[in-house]
Sequence to fold (401 residues):
Amino acid sequence: MIFVLVFALSACEENSPPAAVRLMAIPAAAGSMAPNLARGPHGGLVLSWVEPDGAGHVLRFSVLGIAGWAAPRTIARGNSWFVNWADFPSVVPLSGDLWAAHWLQSQPDGGYAYDVKITMSNDNGETWSEAFLPHFDGTPTEHGFVTLFPDGNGLGLVWLDGRKMINDFDANDVGASGMTLRAATFGIDQAPTTSALVDDLTCDCCQTDLALTDDGPVVVYRNRTEEEVRDIYVSRREAGKWQDGVAVASDNWEMPACPVNGPIIRANGSNVAVAWFTAADDRPRVQAAWSRDAARTFSEPLQVSTERPLGHVGAVLLANGDLVVSWQQGTGGGKAALMLRRVSSAGEMSAPYRLQEAVDIFSFSVPQLALAGNEVVVVWTTSVNNVYGVHGAVLPLDVLD
Fold:
């Protein structure tokens, strides 16, 4: 059992009857932001976040135990990090005692020129290696939106890479200066083992995600075409090679700029589910689709929400194949609420549940979800009196029946 503080959320039209959820005490200092949840190879949950540290920042993490989140530990600190709500660090247990973590380091040119920094631990996060770059292009461009994953006994990662953006923009050849999706693997000794271009034109700043299936890793991301269609794609790695990306659904969202709204993918064996936001045809909506063949084909998407959704989705996949999806819902006046809903592949849906009442839209991070028994752990960032803070709650699944 997870020991947490208890509080009652106010009732609203989505909740009948009103339900109690349990507020988790998060060991993050005032001003913290950018939470991330990861599950280790033995099932434990790891929460990471960024704290202010004088003129800089520090990356910290905590492991969930019987009595709640353990005392936080520090991985790295610095004075020139790139920190924002959309592109956030992570701490991920990989295999055995091997862990990895990443954060973003601003380049001297500033702006959106920043690098990915990786560190690894061989003792369950007790000590960490000297940080290294997983990319070697050396360009003053954006490198971020990273997803770390276990690759055998080593580390795998995918990220958005802007090395082609040093080229002048040409409307007749958008791909010549566009964002790319790249992948790499590293051994336990931090030596690079593979490097690959996964997609040569993607959205600039929508986060990536990755799931491990029985047939290998599958990355999900927002693609970009020369005609500025920005739909959700997946790429599977087969026999060590990343396959050409294919669309999860044909939303045909024509968008002249990045919506900063990435997808989520979850897998259990060969069963895969993807959740995402689109505003194709001027109809904002959160959608989900399922695959039974390790992301080779997907069902027609179901509409999870069409009630003023802003996206920034999270999700967990249940053992029976249902998906619990979270998203931000606009409430007017520049504010948004945090919503959750349980959805089956057959189209059965619970009533939407409002977990966080309306706050300023830009005080939210991308909410993070993870399953803990018959409960969903949710963490997110909000701002009170212009001070960020990381919050968490435990939601019993029967609330979403």
About this structure: Confidence is low (pLDDT under 50) at residues 1-18. The CA atoms of residues 217 and 237 lie 6 Å apart.
